[in-house]
Amino acid sequence: MRTTSLILSFLLMLTLTSTSLYAQVNKDYERALHLYKNKRFSEASEILYRYVQKKPTPSAYYLLGYSLYKLGRHAEAMKYFREAYLLDPEFKPEKIRFK
After folding, report:
1. Is the pTM of this model over 0.90?
2. Is residue 15 a part of any domain in this protein?
3. What one-character DSSP code corresponds to residue 72?
């Protein structure tokens, strides 16, 4: 009985930790979107670098690529554009939801 209780406590703790980390990752993406919309490409790219390490999505890769492009880092930008289309060959920039 004690073992079952410990296992359930561990699973609950793991679930809460995962949920908290997921929420933070989403906040990072929203922050990067805000910075990108406000033409703060350097700051947006810094956040997006970290974001794609945790949650690689086509839209994050594309935004990272475009932020780098706007900063004049064209060769590096192409790497991230390619990553976006490798993850989703049907990806369209219009899929990015700017709130």
Report:
1. no
2. no
3. T
Check: CB of residue 49 under 8 Å from CB of residue 77: no
Q: How many domains does the chain have?
A: 1
Using the structure block, give the residue that is written with the tokens 């369209």: 92
Report pLDDT digits (tens) over 31-86.
999 999 999 999 999 999 999 999 999 999 999 999 999 999 999 999 999 999 99
Cβ pair 35, 45 in contact under 8 A: no
Domain of residue 73 covers 28-95
CA distance 80 to 76: 7
CATH code of residue 36? 1.25.40.10
